[in-house]
Design brief:
The chain is α/β, with parallel strands linked by helices and 611 residues long. Helix content is 62%, strand content 9%. β9 and β10 form a beta hairpin. 31% of the residues are buried. Bound molecules: adenosine-5'-diphosphate and magnesium ion (MG). The site of magnesium ion has 6 residues, from α12.
Length: 611
């Protein structure tokens, strides 16, 4: 992003129309648009003057003049035409290149703006909006604005060229000029009918393309499921039906185009016949020169273009309006969680360094039912997941959280780095409310190994060093050793440089968990959360990991969320969760002796793996 300057922003005033909101982004490129306007008008003026030069050449050199004077005059006109052709080429190249280039640059600006905004949005947004929806907005909707920005000015310029041509024709012979443009309304009307047919069809075709893409995508990504249930034939049938629907609408689209386009293209030729019929009579009567006929036949093919483009741009403007709404919906979405004014960085000398406290926390996920982004504040609160959750963890202490699947353990972990905001109560880290910390600082203090590991399609080194991109290879290796990932990495052909497949699916679940663990270990957080971090790892490896972790956990606050006794054994203290609160708190032995619900959960859930 560096070197491109700051990303222009859309107007934040939601009461303005879509185009006015877009203006700041367009005006950021105004100097280029000005050059486009000047070169475009000059190029078109030259192009429109060509038939006039032809007319003069024919009328003068072939008519009025004789002998050597005629030859000289003819040569002068030929040279003039060549110069005009070259200049017009240069000008037309310049304005088209600049215009299309600028439209693409604005497309990039918008994409940068959307992407930057997406990185600022909170988890609650991503819970609500489907990933495919976001991706489609960032791609095809931005493209449709780009098309309008390229073809809108082009249509404007070509409308000006029509006016110039019409003016020249009127200056030669008014009735003949009117006859020449008489077929143009038909070009427009037929074009309109074509678009009335094509527009809905292309809309449908686009939807069906997405449908086919989705089936293919699910079969590629879900190939293991498809094959293990021997569902290939059902899936092939499903794809065939989707492909058939796509073929139907694509064919209908081709048919509409095949029927209308030749007629629209034939109309200027009909116009030429009319020019010859009426203009020929006028010429025979001596009312216009032969040169005029030549000029009019040049214009009759030239002037159809604006009429064809005009309707296209109207449609594209409708599309761009709809697309811009969908893009603004993302850009207008306020990040739910931002730094408070006056939020402070964590201090290295805070008196309660590493202390964690949940104080009577109530929290419910914003309702996930509203799939398109609702306005801020419109989210209905569901039944609270945490309801009066109280827990204090002293600096350096290790606490295990135990409870049934779905009781809210991971939710507790997500509140600590402020991924979500508590409904009431407070979460404190280092004795300070997390809302009074900068998000950056807080998230450097608290780091977790999440319940689902996610790897990027990069090298293992880069995956481990994700939170500390400047880490050296030996740092990465040390972290991998603690997570017991060093051995299997050593056995890979490329070792730490091995690039893992999408989401790390070329590794086993346990291997992914170990990379994810190493990634967190490397960031050396003051507060460490392990959310079922070893659930997919075999017991022997887990024990080895624990030996490494004990050292790591010695001087930092640690929360382990666990199902297995072996993991619970790492903790100084165990808390049992039920109904969104802590119902028992003590050592493992205490709880086992005094709390039947604890014993029940241990026998019930071991080892169920991740939720
Ligand atoms: N992103 C989310 N949006 C809405 N509800 C969620 C979300 N994540 C979890 N939940 C719900 O919150 C409850 C607690 O989930 P979680 O904290 O993941 O449980 P645990 O980790 O103890 O198994 C569950 O009922 C779950 O369905
Ligand atoms: Mg969980």
């Amino acid at each position: 992003m560096s070197g491109r300057g700051p990303t222009p922003r859309i107007d934040p005033d939601t009461t303005k129309g879509w185009f006015r909101r877009l203006l700041p982004v367009i005006l950021a490129r105004r100097s280029t648009f000005a050059v486009v306007l000047v070169t475009g008008l000059a190029g078109l003026a030259l192009q429109v003057s060509v038939p006039m030069v032809l007319k003069r050449a024919v009328d003068r050199s072939l008519g009025e003049l004789d002998g050597a004077a005629a030859f000289a005059d003819l040569e002068r006109h030929v040279i003039l035409l060549v110069v005009m052709a070259v200049a017009s080429f240069g000008l037309r190249f310049t304005y088209r290149y600049l215009l299309f280039g600028t439209a693409c640059r604005i497309e990039t600006d918008l994409r940068d703006a959307v992407y930057q905004h997406l990185t600022r949005l909170s988890f609650s947004f991503y819970d609500r909006v489907a990933a495919g929806e976001v991706i489609s907005r960032a791609n095809s909707d931005i493209r449709s604005i780009q098309l309008l920005l390229a073809f809108g000015p082009l249509a404007g310029l070509s409308a000006v060229s029509f006016l110039m041509a019409f003016g020249f024709m009127l200056s030669i012979h008014v009735p003949l000029a009117l006859v020449t443009v008489s077929t143009m309304p038909f070009v427009f009307v037929l074009g309109q009918q074509l678009r009335d047919r094509v527009f809905p069809l292309s809309w449908v075709t686009q939807g069906r393309m997405a449908e086919v893409a989705m089936v293919v995508d699910e079969n590629v990504n879900g190939t293991r499921v498809v094959k293990s249930f021997a569902a290939e034939f059902d899936q092939i049938a499903l794809l065939a039906r989707a492909a058939d629907r796509l073929r139907w609408s694509a064919t209908a689209l081709i048919e509409a185009r095949a029927r209308f386009n030749p007629i629209i293209e034939a109309l200027p030729r009909l116009g030429m016949a009319l020019v010859l019929l009426y203009g020929g009579h006028l010429a025979i009567d001596g009312q216009v020169g032969v040169g005029s006929l030549l000029a009019f036949s040049g214009y009759v093919t030239m002037i159809a273009m604006p009429f064809r483009m005009f309707g296209f741009v109207l449609i594209q403007a409708q599309r761009a309006a709809a697309s811009s709404m969908r893009i603004y919906e993302i850009l207008d979405e306020e990040p739910a969680i931002v730094d408070r004014p006056g939020a402070r960085e964590p201090a290295p000398d805070a008196p309660e360094l590493g202390r964690v406290e949940f104080r009577n926390v109530v929290f419910g996920y914003p309702s996930a039912s509203s799939v398109p982004p609702a306005g801020p504040g419109l989210e209905a609160e569901a039944r609270p997941v945490l309801d009066g959750f109280d827990l204090v963890i002293e600096p350096g202490e290790t606490v295990a959280i135990v409870g049934r699947t779905g009781c809210g353990k991971s939710t507790v972990a997500r509140l600590l780095p402020r991924f979500y905001e508590v409904t009431s109560g407070a979460v404190l880290v280092d004795g300070v409310d997390v809302r009074d910390r900068t998000l950056d600082g807080l998230r450097r203090t608290v780091s977790q190994v999440p319940d689902e590991s996610f790897l990027f399609s990069e090298s293992l080194h880069d995956n481990v060093a994700f939170g500390r991109p400047d880490a050296s290879r030996s740092d990465v290796e040390a972290a991998a050793r603690i997570a017991r990932a060093d051995q299997f990495i050593g056995e890979l052909t490329d070792g730490y440089d091995e690039v893992v497949g999408e989401r790390g699916y070329t590794l086993s679940g346990g291997q992914r968990q170990r990379i994810s663990l190493a990634r967190t270990v490397l960031t050396d957080p003051r507060v460490l959360v392990l959310d079922d971090a070893t659930s997919a790892i075999d017991v022997q490896t887990e024990e080895a990991i624990h030996r490494g972790l004990v050292e790591l956990m010695a001087d930092r606050t640690t929360i382990v969320i666990a199902h297995r006794l072996s993991t619970i054994n790492l903790a100084d203290r165990v808390v049992l969760m039920e109904d969104g609160r802590v119902v028992a708190d003590g050592t493992h032995a205490d709880l086992l002796a005094t709390e039947p619900r604890y014993a029940a959960i241990l026998t019930q859930t071991d080892p169920v793996g991740t939720d």
